[in-house]
Amino acid sequence: MAAARRWGRRRRWPVVIGVGVVLALVGYLAVRFIRSATSDECTARGTDGTTVTLDLDQASHAATIAAVAHARGLPERAVTIALATAIQESKLRNLANGDRDSLGLFQQRPSQGWGSPAQIRDPVYAAGKFYDALVKVPDYVDLPVTVAAQNVQHSGYPEAYASHEATAATLADVLTGQDGPALTCTVSGEGRSDAHTVRADGGSGTDDAGAGRGSGTAGVLREGGDGGSVAAAVRREFGRVPATVPAAGDSVSYPVSGTATGWSLALWLVCHAGALHATSVTFDNRRWSSGASDHGWTRISPPSAASATVAVRMS
User: Fold this and answer.
1) Which domain-ending residue is among 175, 206, 237?
2) Average pLDDT over residues 80-86
3) How many CB atoms lie within 10 A of CB 139?
């Protein structure tokens, strides 16, 4: 009998281990990590329970891709296709090298007419060029992601884009503001990150592998944000949102029409908080603060009368 009990315990162990492996796999599929190991990160939560975690650099690039689509009036499907492409090509990193002369988020090649190396390394320009090509694809919104992306990229691995569609769709839904405060970023050191510097003068500096310490031009928001320069950066990436810049110069407010537009802009500001030196972003009676970023979006009490205004304050 004792031997039989021991044999029974031995037989149960493989079953327990097997169940554990299945549960771990299910958990992994529900939470998708693209980021590298870092304590600073942004988390997007989809309505289906999917969670996508990015580091601050990746999140800023994802937000820029969504913002450029907003500025051009493109649908959410275009954002999904662009994000799936950038995840496959660069893991949402502004790469300084790649296959042959490929560069940037989408691994576009100067030799193939995508632009100069400096232009391609500008995320706003790169996203714009991707969308320029995408909208020329007939009925692209109805095509599978991998087909639409391949029509733009002409990749040697055309099926690879499909594996990122679910992750890209979650990010697109969140970053276009459809799910409200469904993304938050946890930052240290009051969010001072120079990984992706947003510029008001038409360029973007990065600190990715192989790059220098950004462009260093006067338009780089590196030594401290102010209302005018932040407003210019928002206009360049997100589009022409009506802006009010108080004389104090340390905050900008945007009256917006539509909750989705407001949340899209608010999340863009949070994803770029480090480069913009933003200490708080407020919209729809919720506030994100760099000093309490681990609390996410907290409710304002009492509610603000300016709930239809996105406000960002800089240090």
Assistant:
1) 175
2) 98
3) 7
Which residue pairs from 288-292 have beta carbons closer than 8 angstroms and sit at least 24 positions apart in sequence? 288/181, 288/184, 288/185, 290/187, 290/190, 290/191, 291/190
Position 208 in a domain = yes
- 170 and 71 in a single domain? The answer is yes
Express each pLDDT in 234-244 by its tens digit.
999 998 777 77
Q: Which tens digit of pLDDT belongs to each residue from 50-70?
A: 999 999 999 999 999 999 999
Question: Does residue 149 sit in the same domain as residue 86?
Answer: yes
The overall longest dimension of the chain from CA atoms, in Å, is 86
Structure confidence by residue, pLDDT tens digits, 130-167 = 999 999 999 999 999 999 999 999 988 878 999 999 99
Length of the chain: 315
To 5 degrees, how large is the angle CA 150–CA 114–CA 144?
Answer: 15
Q: Which two tokens stand for residue 282?
A: 């407020």
CA distances from 268 to 21, 88, 115, 141, 237 (A): 37, 22, 26, 24, 9
In a domain, 189, yes or no: yes
What is the number of domains present in the chain?
Answer: 2
**Residues 82, 163 within the same domain:** yes
Q: What are the backbone angles phi and psi of residue 117, rounded to the nearest 5°?
A: -55, -40
